[in-house]
Amino acid sequence: MKKLLLLILLFISINVKASIVVMDADSGRILYSQEKDKRMLIASTTKVMTAIVALENAKLSDKYTVGDEIDMANGSMIYSKKGETFTLYDLLHGLLLRSGNELA
């Protein structure tokens, strides 16, 4: 099974720009890696951490209005506008599922 998984990963990861590491969870042994030492920006990790902090400090039903901070957002966005109001649930949905950087 491990050989099959490794072959599949080799096939699908030829053009991957980010790192890939397949590790045996029991032994910690790396079964396959590609670009594992390549430095990358941590955009997705930042989004996940932002969501965790928000969930620890607010309720999903809390409402927030988009302010001037949106002018500093860049990258992947859902194109919300100043003055729009969202629940935390909707903000997290846009942040995590649609990769809306401005919602962070």
Beta-strand proportion: 5-15%
Low-confidence stretches: none
- Using only C-alpha atoms, the radius of gyration works out to 19 Å
Secondary structural class: alpha+beta
Largest β sheet strand count, sense and barrel closure = 2 strands, antiparallel
Helix proportion: 25-40%
How many extended strands?
Answer: 4
Give the count of helical stretches: 3
Spatial strand sequence of the major β-sheet: 1-2
Provide a descriptive summary of the structure in words:
The model has no long low-confidence stretch (mean pLDDT about 80). The chain has three helices and four strands, in the order H-E-E-H-E-E-H. It has helices at about 1-10, 45-55, 90-95, and strands spanning about 20-25, 30-35, 65, 85. Helix 2 packs antiparallel against helix 3 (about 90-95). It has a two-stranded antiparallel sheet with strand order 1-2. Strands 3-4 form a two-stranded antiparallel sheet.
Secondary structure topology:
Elements: H1 2-12, E1 20-23, E2 30-34, H2 43-57, E3 63-65, E4 85-87, H3 88-96
Antiparallel strand pairs: 1-2, 3-4
Main attributes?
104 residues, alpha+beta, two-stranded antiparallel sheet, 4 strands, elongated
